[in-house]
């Protein structure tokens, strides 16, 4: 276990000053969150204890970016970008708890390991958020918090398929390691596969990251129709191939149920 260093006296360290503009932005947001009828520039200046002239630039910038809106009477309200950010934060925190019963049932129904994962916040990797392992003695086993590459895992490919075009182009320019003889590493081959995933709504891998292990993944959508997470069923390749026709509809329905739990749905619906 890693020890926390106690070298030095932490109480003697000077506190870091928060930039005044950052403090004012949070005061504005907190004030508007408590005011359903919105607020004028004068009212926000009073709440933030700041001159109106010093808030105008902040308010204009937040409005331009969609974090605030301003009506014809000059009142400010929280905007769609702020509300979307808040909903994603809540969904991310509660997703594991909400999805857990679905994972348990999915693993029981398919006889394989069920995993919930999402894109890591600090890297282009998939992070496993929760899992329910198969009861079979020979099974796919992963740890919560484990990270895997996007290009060679079913869940990773599913998330990668819904990158915007510019981000995908940048990602595909990077070099990729072949973990097994079946790993797809060529950019054009990956691009074709990702296009297929977007059209079909399911992602597959067979022996690409680990020989003898295969997976099928399905998307979980936010209220805006964006893919924010994924469900994965994984197991020994022979068993997965034999039972794919049974696993696919169960997985699709489970992922759809998870989307509904957080008020999400596909943009196609």
Can I get a quick summary?
With 269 residues, this protein is α+β, with helices and mostly antiparallel strands. The chain is 45% helix and 17% strand.
What does this structure look like?
The protein is elongated. Strand 7 (213-221) and strand 8 (227-236) form a beta hairpin. Helix 4 (80-110) packs antiparallel against helix 8. It has eight helices and eight strands, in the order αααββαβββαααβββα. The N and C termini lie far apart (48 Å). The protein has a six-stranded antiparallel β-sheet with strand order 5-4-3-8-7-6. The protein has a two-stranded antiparallel sheet with strand order 1-2. It has 269 residues and is of the alpha+beta class.
Topology:
Elements (H helix, E strand, L loop, with lengths): L19 H14 L7 H8 L3 H13 L3 E3 L5 E3 L1 H31 L2 E7 L5 E8 L14 E3 L4 H7 L4 H8 L14 H14 L2 E4 L6 E9 L5 E10 H25 L8
Antiparallel strand pairs: 1-2, 3-4, 3-8, 4-5, 6-7, 7-8
Global morphology: elongated
Mean pLDDT: 86
Task: Output the helix-strand order.
Answer: HHHEEHEEEHHHEEEH
Unreliably modeled segments: 1-18
Query: Structural class of the secondary elements?
Result: alpha+beta
Percent range for β-strand residues:
15-25%
Provide a count of the helices. Answer: 8
Q: How is the main sheet built?
A: 6 strands, antiparallel
**Which strand order do you get reading across the main beta sheet?**
5-4-3-8-7-6
Would you report the number of β strands?
8
